Amino acid sequence: TIGCPWFRTKNVPRLAYSIKRHNAEGMCLTSWNTTRIDQLKPELIRALALTAYYSWSPDDCDLEHLKFVPDAITEGAAYWNKVKFPAVTVTPVKIDGGLTGGNELVNALGLPDGTDAAVIGTPFKNYRGVTFDVFQKDGKPAAVMLRGVASGTKGMVNNGDFSPGFGINGWNLQNAGKEDIFETNGVLKIIAPQDKKFMRAYQDIALDPKKSYSLVYKVKADVPGTARVWLYSGDEKFKWDAKILNSNTKNTDWMVKEVQLPPGSGSVRICFSAEGAGTAAYYDDIKIVEAGAIKSSQTVGTSIDIPVDKKARVVTFMHATSKQILEEDMAGMGKKFANSIPGQYIIVYSDGSNICIPLFYRVNIAAANDMALGRDSDVGLFGTVGYTTFLNIPTFTWANPYPAKTITSIKIVPGNSKDMSLLLFGISLD
User: Fold this and answer.
1) Which among 105, 137, 128 has a CA at the least distance from the CA of 428?
2) pTM value?
3) Residue 217 confidence (pLDDT)
4) Which residues of 193-214 are buried (b: 16+ CB within 10 A; e: fewer)?
5) pLDDT tens-digit readout, 338-386
6) Between the N and C ends of the chain, which has fewer C-beta atoms within 10 Å?
7) Which tens digit of pLDDT belongs to each residue from 7-47?
């Protein structure tokens, strides 16, 4: 008998313990998923690390006392030789006001009462070579802490503005290769292939069936083809057999369109495609809005401006969200955070232009108590406090598309959930 734990976190140590106890043959991690390390989902990376560890250490089967973040170990080892933007000259960004420290910060991180916040100031260097000076308040580690504010908008669609550096993360691609669908100048561009195969980019969004919503987006198409948006309105389990809407556009100039979703929709699948061989369709500023809500991407709430006045080829953030209630079931996790936007960073340049960097849960940020790393996150500060409580503060490196421009300031904007605070511990420029 060989034990196959799948990717449920608690399955792994329990099964490893039973296998040793009953002298079974061993462990084998199985999953119907890609094995490419750059495409593995966080739950599979964690399962790989845990299965490797408990296969050799089946007696140490208490997850509560695990002294490492399994995702961090695996991703760090896997990507070490594929480092992008290795650090050359690292300059920390300083900030004076608007910082939170002490017990308030300890509570936000979910650490035991009485924990000294100094643990957050542990010096470290991530595998890109970036070092951090954690923000200080009264000589002790602190963070910019902005509590999310419900703004009336249920949730921005992931990568709805296709900011440079994010690509098409958060979207699913059907029958699409790199030459078929891509982002250019912050816009999603889909080219219908000559062989007329069906191709689309799509994403599932959970909704409140008691509320009414509309999809708002910008679109244009190269004639004589058509840019088509399909909306599948399903139930909360994402079964797509309910109602179907579509919206066609043949305009060669940008236009803003709004499509009202059917009442009682528990979810929506948004699909973008181009029809007509060789036709190019362009999409931008995509969002879901509640009926009567403002149709803009502006987040309502207090923000903080951090002066910079330097040039940089990359900007690295050391950040996390406040402690969250995490589901062991990954489908439950996906549903729970489907519409949670932890916040935004807005890079302001000296010529008056700016770029918005949206934050997405388990993509480029996660909760401080979450064992998972997002696919755009790097290993940062992690471990256990008092051998009982996880602490996981990742880093996120953003490639500046305009390195010749001076960055005047970075605006830190809160997210859209009052139960999730954005915690920013440090910024480094390179």
Assistant:
1) 128
2) 0.64
3) 85
4) beeeeebbbbbbbbbeeeebbb
5) 767 898 899 999 998 888 888 888 889 999 998 877 778 888 888 888 7
6) N
7) 888 889 999 999 999 999 999 988 777 766 666 777 788 88
Q: Give the separation between CA 124 and CA 122, rounded to whole angstroms.
A: 6
Distance CA 211, CA 290 (A): 7
Contact 292, 108 (CB under 8 A): no
Closest CA to 281 of 311, 319, 251: 251
Q: Which residues contact 298 (CB under 8 A, 6 or more apart)?
A: 151
Token look-up 């608690």 returns 10
Report the alpha-carbon distance of residue 296 to residue 275 in Å, rounded.
Answer: 28
Tokens 């979207």 belong to which residue?
Answer: 171
CA dihedral 320, 323, 329, 333 (to 10 degrees): -60
Q: Are 135 and 117 in contact (CB under 8 A)?
A: no
- Please, are residues 17 and 5 in contact by the beta-carbon 8 Å criterion? no
Listed in sequence order, the residues at least 6 apart from 106 whose beta carbon sits closer than 8 Å to its beta carbon are 113, 115, 117
Whether the pLDDT of residue 76 is over 70: the answer is no
Q: In 109-254, which ranges are E strands?
A: 136-137, 140-147, 155-156, 172-174, 181-184, 187-191, 200-206, 213-221, 226-234, 243-249
User: SS3 of 79, please?
Assistant: helix
> Strands 304-310, 280-290: parallel, antiparallel or unpaired by DSSP?
unpaired
**Average pLDDT of the residues of the chain:** 81
First-residue to last-residue Cα distance in the chain: 52
